[in-house]
Amino acid sequence: MSGHEEWFAPGGGMAAVKGFISPRSAQAISAILTHQMQTPIQGALAEIGTFLGKTFIGLALAAKPGEHVVGLDIFEADVGEKLVASLRRVLPGDRASHVRVAKRDSTTVTPAEWMRLLGSPARFVHIDGDHTYEAVLSDIQLATTFLADGAIVVLDDFMHEWYPDVSEGIIDALRVSKNLFPVAVIPRTGSVMGGGTKLVCTTPGAVDDCFRLLKAALPGTTFRDCRIAGKPAWAFFNYD
Ligand SMILES: C[S@@+](CC[C@H](N)C(=O)[O-])C[C@H]1O[C@@H](n2cnc3c(N)ncnc32)[C@H](O)[C@@H]1O
Q1: How many structural domains is the chain composed of?
Q2: DSSP secondary-structure letter at 63?
Q3: How many CA atoms lie within 13 A of 217 on its CB side?
Q4: Closest Cα to atom 9, ligand 1: which residue?
Q5: Which residues of 106-129 are buried (b: 16+ CB within 10 A; e: fewer)?
Q6: Is the CB of 106 inside a 6 Å radius of any atom of ligand 1?
Q7: Count of CB atoms within 10 A of residue 204's CB?
Q8: From atom 16 of ligand 1, which residue's Cα is the shortest distance away?
């Protein structure tokens, strides 16, 4: 098992960190990162809204040599210090030199700054920051300014009962985006407090491959064709 697989596995490293990612989402993200590791795709990995690193540390463990891993958060109270301490524990010494954590309101980050932070077009982005309509729209637009071909962008809390604003931001952003298409809805497992439903997206030419990957990563689930933001996509059924 590689580092991120151990991190995202049931009872793995992420279990010791407070945060929000359901087991099914962890399984899907882990499978995406494994697939990217086995293919030539290169690029930065980034998360907007790292909180304490439950997802972010898994991304840091999946970096290939020379790739940057970038985390943005407004870091209230001592969240930033705790994240850095966890990163040091999991990635000791110079193994963390590729990780860049910035205390920033993502809605104020310009595309030029984003590109500087990432260093190369992103191959994986997780968007889980401010849950207002405006911020979600802005974060997705920012992410789409610097994407590698075949990049995966995972959008948190799609169809969340408490955050309809997030869903509206996602739909509006995807309706106009030329380089980010929806692939599939990954329903959460269990209580919403354990992590929300995610929408996996990718660049236009990679949609079918990404769906096949998710289908293989989520055995035992049922899926159906659907439509999201005017584009064909899939939804996996939530038995739990
Ligand atoms: C739901 S938590 C993220 C959970 C995390 N991704 C995980 O896997 O556990 C949302 C995070 O977004 C951060 N946040 C809120 N507004 C933000 C903004 N404008 N820019 C960057 N981060 C923001 C919060 O500080 C919080 O840590």
Answers
A1: 1
A2: P
A3: 25
A4: 19
A5: bbebeeeebeebbbeebbbbbbbb
A6: yes
A7: 12
A8: 130
Q: Is there an atom of ligand 1 within 6 Å of 162 CB?
A: no
Count H helices and E strands in the chain, helices first: 8, 9
CA of 209 to the centre of ligand 1 (A): 29
Give the H/E segment covering residue 144.
Answer: none
| Closest residue CA from atom 6 of ligand 1 | 50
Ligand 1 closest atom vs CA 106: 20
Q: Residue 177 carries which side chain, given as an amino acid letter? A: S
| CATH of residue 164 | 3.40.50.150
Residue 227, Cβ neighbours under 10 Å: how many?
A: 10
Owning domain of residue 186: 3-236
Local structure of residue 65 (DSSP, 8 states)? T
State if residue 236 touches ligand 1 by the CB under 6 angstroms criterion. Answer: no
Per-residue pLDDT in tens (0 to 9) along the chain, 240 residues: 789 999 999 999 999 999 999 999 999 999 999 999 999 999 999 999 999 999 999 999 999 999 999 999 999 999 999 999 999 999 977 778 899 999 999 999 999 999 999 999 999 999 999 999 999 999 999 999 999 999 999 999 999 989 999 999 999 999 999 999 999 999 888 777 778 899 999 999 999 999 999 999 998 889 999 999 999 999 998 777
Place of tokens 């439903």: 197
